[in-house]
Amino acid sequence: MRKVVSNTTPIISLLKIQQLDLLAKLYENIIVPEAVWQEVEVGKDGSFYADLTSFAWISIQEIQKREGLDYLTDLDKGEAEVIVLAREIDADLVIIDEILGRQYAEHFGLTLTGTIGILLRAKKEGHVHALRPLLEQLQSNGVWLSNNVIKEVLILAGE
Known about the structure:
- The protein starts with a strand and ends with a helix.
- By secondary structure, the protein is mainly alpha-helical.
- The longest helix has 12 residues, at 77-88.
- Helix 3 (34-42) packs antiparallel against helix 4.
- The chain contains eight helices and five strands; from the N terminus they run E-H-H-E-H-E-H-E-H-E-H-H-H.
- 37% of the residues are buried.
- The mean pLDDT is 92.
- The chain has a single domain, classed as Rossmann fold.
- It has helices at 8-16, 21-27, 34-42, 77-88, 99-107, 115-124, 132-140, 147-156; strands spanning 4-6, 30-33, 58-61, 93-95, 112-113.
């Protein structure tokens, strides 16, 4: 079984378009560090919330080497814990959207994808039929995507 660790933003973004289940379809199981779970819980009273503990395919895992966070002070706690946990468990994939977090993850040799990568893979595997409405829904729910990114994604998706 592949070890996949996710940050908060992709989870929230997928919740915004009612597509969180894509993570289970594509990866079977997702691991989130404690800080990511806490960040999701902050939005408990908001429109885009799900109790991560209610999904059998999501596990919440505490990082063991907290001193690893000392080198990632530029990142928020969730991103830093994602990178530390991914290194601790030798994760096969890290799901993270934030540019700085991705740069750190790449520096440590971690394999990455993000919300857009998930949507592209879901389209390729037939889990979604069209990306345009999902991208528009992301935008209308406050996820910033440039027109160039949208054009490129639609070309890659064959739309």
